[in-house]
Amino acid sequence: MKIVTWNCNGALRNKTIEIDYLNADILVVQECEDPARSTAQYLEWAGDYLWVGASKNKGIGIFPKNGNTIKALDWNGEFQLKGLSSKSPSLYWKTSDLNLFLPFTINDDVTVLAVWTKGSDDQAFGYMGQFWKYLQIHRTDLMNKKTMILGDFNSNAVWDKSDRWWSHSDVVSELNEMEIFSLYHKQFTEEQGQETQPTFYLHRKEERPYHIDYAFLSIDILNQSKLTVGKRNDWIGVSDHLPLSVEFSI
Fold first, then answer.
1. 115-143 pLDDT, tens per residue?
2. Contacting residues for 151 by C-beta, under 8 A, at least 6 apart
3. What CATH number corresponds to the domain at position 148?
4. What residue numbers bound the domain in which 60 lies?
5. What is the pLDDT, as a whole number, of residue 210?
6. Structural domains counted in the chain
């Protein structure tokens, strides 16, 4: 099975030919528009899709292909930091407060959490902080076998801050304790923050490369999986991100 995650940089309706070239079984696409509020051609292409977003033009879409089926998971919960004297409401949050996450199953067999971390500029818990908060609520949900967490995290260890317990490296360590590991780093034996293959080019400039897209897999499927990062020349004309293809056998 092949699962592809890609931030399409908007207007997926005009880029379906490019992404179909990868012949994925499941497409996980960030920054795409809602097919129900777009063109008829795009809606037909989307099939029995899932989508969530803050506006009709920018969300996460899940598109099953090749006869595969997907089903949304109703994950909702809350979390509170306890043991502190402060009564601040910022110590409490719930799933619906966090952006953007879409959990689903593939063929009633594999659990996937699609990620596009966001957060406004005035939030301390932006990007990886949003995922850290989500992880505190749904840690148990993510500890099942055949589990994948993938997408655009907008994060890298090079941006760690020493006074934040939700920095990139801390979250990766927490996932590792759950026996969930980054497939890229396992496959290419590279350290977090030392990636040699970018997944994103700021303003599409070759001199501004970053690695901010990831696929984390539970240990039971990690060793049966392979990851491929798209080539810049093939994709930079349609997006500032490169697709990640995860192929695995169950």
1. 999 876 667 888 999 999 999 999 999 99
2. 5, 7, 28, 30, 60, 114, 115, 116, 117, 213, 214
3. 3.60.10.10
4. 2-248
5. 98
6. 1
